[in-house]
Design brief:
Blueprint lengths: L1 H17 L5 E7 L4 E3 L15 E6 L4 E6 L2 E2 L12 E2 L2 H4 L6 E3 L10 E9 L7 E16 L6 E5 L4 E9 L4 E8 L2 E4 L5 E7 L6 E8 L5 E10 L4 E8 L3 H27 L1
Parallel strand pairs: 1-9
Antiparallel strand pairs: 2-7, 3-4, 3-8, 4-5, 6-7, 8-9, 10-11, 11-15, 12-13, 12-16, 14-15, 16-17
The chain binds 2-acetamido-2-deoxy-beta-D-glucopyranose (NAG) (5 copies).
One 2-acetamido-2-deoxy-beta-D-glucopyranose (NAG) binds next to strand 1.
Length: 269
Amino acid sequence: MLPKVISVFGLFSSFVVAGDATLVRDVNTTISDSAVLECSIQDRAITDWKSLRFYWQDDRNVVLYSYNNGRKVAEHVNELYQHRVTDFPQDIVRGNITIVLKNLTLDDNGRTYSSFAAVLDDSGTTRYHLEHTQICEMTLHVAVPYQEPRLDVNTEAMSAVCSLQGGFPAPDIQWVLLHNSSHQAVESRNVNTETKQNVHDHLYSSRSILHIPAGRHEAVSCLSHNPTLNRTVKVTHNFNTAGAAARSSPAALTVYLIAAAVVLLTAVQ
Ligand SMILES: *[C@@H]1O[C@H](CO)[C@@H](O)[C@H](O)[C@H]1NC(C)=O
Ligand SMILES: *[C@@H]1O[C@H](CO)[C@@H](O)[C@H](O)[C@H]1NC(C)=O
Ligand SMILES: *[C@@H]1O[C@H](CO)[C@@H](O)[C@H](O)[C@H]1NC(C)=O
Ligand SMILES: *[C@@H]1O[C@H](CO)[C@@H](O)[C@H](O)[C@H]1NC(C)=O
Ligand SMILES: *[C@@H]1O[C@H](CO)[C@@H](O)[C@H](O)[C@H]1NC(C)=O
């Protein structure tokens, strides 16, 4: 029992020592893509990196990268991460312990990755500059982009249906009406959105129904936002508006009148 208590305490104290350096960062990326786990040891007292040893682990304490005595220690890497990590030996010797995790899947989503390092001081004793101190911590968010939404508008029933399939995480869907050339948010009581997650591939599908309120709308748009990619895809239906044309004619008339006035004024001068 005692060793366990000590190791928990050790971990805790390393958090305190590392201070601001252990700020948890978000790393957002796309499925099948790579994630750069960027991390550098910032310690001016260290001038000699020969004794550097470090490792990266996930929130299950599964090791994805280990380095000691100037080389990668492949035996320490869990098979879950074998052949998925790229290192940068030329940067490691300067205290930059960045790695790249490749071939991301949704199993990697939401995991937190931490690096711990130790560097002996150069006096040849066994004193450390860093003693298995936590250096960096980051949370990985993996997204699957949605295709452009499909929008079906029924002008008789005054309803619009926006469908999205096969993305991750769940989308935020918003409706916008274009009315008198200005965008108008839609009241939530006119919207009914249903989102489902497929138990096998974990991907979401969403179907949002808008009851189009009365009014002379020029267009309706469905916007789908992927919070991890911070990207919005939009699809718009333009109503066949005689109203819009009628409204534009006074503007055209004004332009004509101004032009006529200019011609008149020029003629007078
Ligand atoms: C650390 O190394 C990585 C990989 O070469 C590089 O992208 C990054 O800019 C380096 N960071 C610093 C602070 O030098
Ligand atoms: C990573 O993905 C590439 C391209 O899809 C594939 O060829 C390779 O076998 C994958 N590697 C691993 C370790 O899964
Ligand atoms: C349309 O907008 C213009 C300028 O903002 C305003 O003067 C006009 O009254 C509006 N028309 C309608 C029908 O809301
Ligand atoms: C990264 O993804 C998370 C989870 O979806 C999100 O909360 C965060 O805002 C995203 N960060 C950026 C910079 O887009
Ligand atoms: C998402 O992107 C918008 C602009 O495209 C930006 O203003 C906003 O800060 C971003 N959100 C996050 C969480 O990064």
